[in-house]
Amino acid sequence: MEEEKKPDESVSINKAQSSPCIIFFYEMKKQRYQTFFNLSKGCYIRNIEQMQNGMCFPTPQGWMLIVHPHGKHCCLFDPLTMSKKNLPSLQQEASPVTNLICTLSSSPTDENCTVLCADMGKRLLFFYQDGDTKWTLYKYNLGDNYLSNVATCDGKFYGLTLQDNFATIDCSPNPRINILEPLNIHWPVGASTRISYLVESCGEMYSVDCFKRAHKSNKTTHISVKKRDSSRQAWDTVYSIGGRVILLGSENSSASWSASELGVKGDCIYYVETNDKRVYCFDLEEGCTSVHMACSRLQPSGLTPMWILPAS
Fold first, then answer.
1. Containing H/E element for 75?
2. InterPro entries, alphabetically (predicted)?
3. In this predicted model, which residue has the larger pLDDT, 117 or 34?
4. Which H/E stretch holds residue 259?
5. Mean pLDDT over residues 264-269, rounded?
6. By C-alpha distance, which of 238, 243, 216, 242 is closest to 225?
7. Residue 155 domain-assigned?
């Protein structure tokens, strides 16, 4: 039986709890609380002040980008250790940022760390390198094509485009997007929409496609995974991800983690749906989906939950 704890800002997170968690947001007495759900250890509830008033964007490296209204205040924050690194304002032409995907080249404690933020709706890339006084802004033009996802592998930035191309992303001082090979996506019969993710796992690049049917209440009905063969510059459908798990969350965010450290079966995709308090598991080998219930008292807020990893 899962254990639920009452909201308590003093809750400490020990090493046993420092493994990937999914955060559900909800409000109680005009306060925004966060329910942390660990796949093998259950729930605990916190009220983290730093996450109260800003927009939160997860990174695959565990740090969370928090942008306050209109981008005037911005920082990287680790909700597991409460560490924080202030960043320059993300304000741009009095237009607030709303739809960011964020990834880091390395730990923000590394002096060579580069932070990449992609504003999908406005075709903007923001770059920050340690010591910069402001973000480098790059408004790209790929014609009818644009980035739909970004990721980091071995300190380099990569992207997926709307037209299903793989791309490299050069950062400042000379930002550039270099379109490479197509992924050749095959749609299952009956699928009407798709969400694509770009995921790094143990130095390998994977793409994950979640297909949906409108008449199925817009729920995921099929998941396909491809792995990049860099020698051939090609993508092959796979049914194993090296015994690890892939975690899919909000804002096209994703990450990979050791299944044994989580205490769960490997070669599975864990994902969430909007306005839902359940965690779903798609077994690549078996081709079937199972459901993990989060805390029984959790009330969905309409915000898609996000995965948080121990910060690297």
1. strand 74-78
2. KIB1-4_b-propeller
3. 117
4. helix 259-262
5. 94
6. 238
7. yes
- Residues 171, 273: Cα–Cα separation, whole Å: 32
Residue 216 lies in a domain: no
Q: Is residue 189 part of a domain?
A: no
| Residue 226: both structure tokens together | 């491809």
Sequential DSSP letters for 131-157: T-SSPEEEE--BTTB-EEEEEEETTEE
Phi, psi of 188 (to 5 degrees): -65, 155
Q: Give the C-alpha separation, 262 to 247, whole Å.
A: 12
Segments forming the whole domain that contains residue 123: 57-182
**pLDDT, tens digit, 9 for 90 and up, residues 67-101:** 887 657 899 999 888 899 999 988 665 466 777 89
Q: Is residue 176 part of a domain?
A: yes
pLDDT digits (tens, 9 = 90+) for 212-262: 887 656 789 899 999 999 999 999 999 999 999 999 987 677 889 999 888
| pTM score above 0.85 | yes
**Cβ-count burial 185-206 (b if 16+ within 10 Å, e if not):** eeeeeebeebbbbbbbbeebbb
Q: How far apart are the first and last CA of the chain?
A: 31
